[in-house]
Amino acid sequence: MARPENLVYSKTHEWVRVDGEIATVGITDYAQEQLGDVVMVDLPPVGKTVAAGQEMGTVESVKAVSEVFSPVSGEVVEVNGQLEAHPELVNQDPFGAGWLVKIKVAQVPADLMDAKAYEQFVQEEGGH
Amino acid sequence: MTPTPAKKTPLYVVHVEAGAKMVEFAGWEMPLKYRGVLEEHRAVRTGVGLFDVSHMGELEVVGKRALDFVQYVTCNDASRLTPGRAQYSGLMTPRGTFVDDLLLHMLAPDRYLLVVNAANKDKDYAYLCAQAPAFDDVDVHDRSAEYAQLAIQGPLAEKVLQKLTPQNLAEIKYYRFVEGEVAGVPAIIARTGYTGEDGFEVYVAPQAAVGLWRAIMEAGAEFEIQPCGLGARDTLRFEACMPLYGNDIDDATTPYEAGLDWIVKLEKGPFLGREALLHQKATGVKRKLVGFEMVGKGIPRHGYPILHASHEIGYVTSGTMSPTLGKPLGLGYVPVELAGEGSELFVDIRGQKVPARVIPTPFYRRAK
Q: B319 and B333 in contact (C-beta within 8 Å)?
């Protein structure tokens, strides 16, 4: 899967697309592949304030639960309601229809990685 | 962390070649999934799937008093077997709890093959060897290295396997087996499985495993056969409420608590754990393994506490989003007074008290 160049990535395998003051957040192709078939997504309610690095929800596969950490600080302004009925979108289109939340950003941390740095990070972590 | 490197089944190369995600399980490097747990699960429920279960242990009990010995260490009645029949049973501690659960195959009047859990094989072998000296002329052999085991499961399993064997498979009833030939190699063909579907477990020499795997995949291509990993094996057996040792049963639980009353034959004569089980039957169990569905949102998982009011009263032994039923389901031990159908409980899902309700088991039963 092509990993979009215009996104930034966290070490906990979330991606962020910043568009003005709105950051769209999802989990990466690598994260969904590691997790397997996603069967349930639990997201923070609209209006909730989240801090960068803080757990904001969970994505569950048949086998396991994985925490989702907010890569940015701000307020949740929209959650992907499609995922309630179709959690498989996280697998099928992690960078598109499988997005998780939109956050009105107060701050984007400087330590998020670009696509190239994330690719290297994944290779080191995956050991291949 | 393990002290020794994980063992590889004879089919390891095939799994890697097929792009399986490998995981360590019970000291073995095993395929977790190929194309995905849900797709593999669906293939077995509606078509056919193929599993490498060569990690399972095979122990053989041989000798004139083989039956007496098997009767003594297991709780089901092995005297009901005839050659070519298999039986689900429990290897019992003197407390009437599980050393392991197993499939007992009667090969001949003086030969029984016990197929046991990979994680318990060494323990089981040592346990059997420790009991054997009390019986003259009984030997226990660990044959695990001499068998690879492939499970072909699903409503189309017979169709696929029939293409590869002269044996008339329709004649092999559930829990029967024959020693015959598949894809030109000697094999034990048993109509057994751990998925809740029709299917076969085929035992062959390790060096024949790769050839047999490829032959079955080729024969099954027209039926869209899927290679299946441990992930689907677990969701399939879970829906059928077939217990998983280490989760749903262990050496602290008895067959009565696990709802496996049907494998305890107290009238068969003395056996390990009989006194304890007699007592438990007379006084009644204090807790029972129940199936439950979630009323609130959340997926119950192994080890999560089960609550009633605000008290922890039990724990989840297995749980997942059921692929066939499309809802989160769980199994767990609860006090017997809360074990009735409709009983309202809570599962502590990572700090959230989520309501759940006891429902009948098995969750899934195939149409006959």
A: no
